[in-house]
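Colleagues,

For the teaching module next term, I've prepared a clean inverse folding example: a structure given as tokens, and then the sequence designed for it. I'd like students to try predicting residues themselves before seeing the answer, so please don't circulate the second half yet.
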């Protein structure tokens, strides 16, 4: 991941923080989706909302289509408004990242006392997801 790719993730979290500061916690997820879409527009961030994700088997598309809440510069963005993020929420994001073959994903939860964010990097060669934080993100920046 380049430094700019990491900064793009940082930009997404900044927009989500503004939405959280304006709306508070615990509202319905669709309200946060709409507000975040408006914040992205205000920040001139060109995103795709509810991007359809098609999965293929042996080159043929499967009928089941999933929808990512947002897609921005190769980042899969999944929103939640729950008391606590669970492994199922992370698995959903990870599946979306695999389907799209994107190596960056962000999980945002507006249901906790403060905005909960998790930034992930997908390393396909090991089929591993790494939670990026202040201590390790520099290890994954290549420039």
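(Answer key — instructors only)
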């Amino acid at each position: 991941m380049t430094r700019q790719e990491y900064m793009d993730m940082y930009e997404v979290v900044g927009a989500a923080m503004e939405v959280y500061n304006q709306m508070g916690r615990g509202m319905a997820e669709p309200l946060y989706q709409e507000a975040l879409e408006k914040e992205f527009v205000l920040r001139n961030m060109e995103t795709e909302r509810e991007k359809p994700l098609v999965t293929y088997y042996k080159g043929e598309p499967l009928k089941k289509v999933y929808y990512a809440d947002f897609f921005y510069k190769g980042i899969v963005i999944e929103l939640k408004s729950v008391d606590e993020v669970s492994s199922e929420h992370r698995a959903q994001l990870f599946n979306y990242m695999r389907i799209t073959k994107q190596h960056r994903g962000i999980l945002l939860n507006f249901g906790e006392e403060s905005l909960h964010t998790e930034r992930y990097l997908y390393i396909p060669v090991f089929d591993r997801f790494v939670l990026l934080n202040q201590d390790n993100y520099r290890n994954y920046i290549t420039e």
